[in-house]
Design brief:
The protein is α+β, with helices and mostly antiparallel strands. Helix content is 29%, strand content 31%. The chain has four helices and seven strands. Strands 1-2-3-4-5-7-6 form a seven-stranded mixed β-sheet, with helices on both faces.
């Protein structure tokens, strides 16, 4: 069984390790995670998924700067052995609910252009491609920008 909870500073070592594993081409720094956590709950929402042993198996975050402005999903990551179990879908569902409470007009995100599983998930949830960011994740690693109106 997977449970979800708010992330906190005590999760930082695990999140840093997972981020290096999941996104080796552009892992977040300690400062980036701390910036995310500093905005909770006013402008940021960050959650983790835990397995039955209480180990973090995924995480997601979003930034909603003000009412009427699009929220930006900053990260979604799930370790390989827990993919295709609905964790990312649940993250997006919870993020969208939080964004609605913040009165965001839409939710946006960037996803690596070759991450077809993630792109298919987002599209199945109503996200539409609005642009491409060339070399966003590094040389020859483009990002699709997706958006869903709320």
């Amino acid at each position: 069984m997977i449970t979800y909870r708010a992330a906190g500073l005590l999760d930082l070592p695990v999140l840093l390790s997972l981020d290096k594993q999941l996104f080796p081409y552009s892992p977040w720094s300690v400062a980036q995670f701390k910036e995310e956590f500093a905005g909770i709950p006013k402008t940021r929402f960050f959650l983790v998924a835990c397995n039955q042993a209480g180990e973090i198996v995924g995480y997601a975050g979003v930034f909603a700067p003000a009412p009427g402005v699009a929220a930006d999903i900053t990260t979604v990551g799930v370790i390989a052995q827990y993919r295709r179990k609905g964790i990312a879908r649940e993250f997006i569902t919870q993020i969208e609910a939080w964004a609605r409470l913040r009165q965001s007009c839409a939710v946006m995100l960037e996803v690596k252009s070759d991450n077809l599983a993630a792109i298919n998930l987002y599209q199945s949830m109503g996200y539409m491609k609005i642009s491409i960011r060339i070399n966003y994740y590094g040389p020859n690693m483009d990002a699709q920008v997706l958006r869903k109106e709320l």
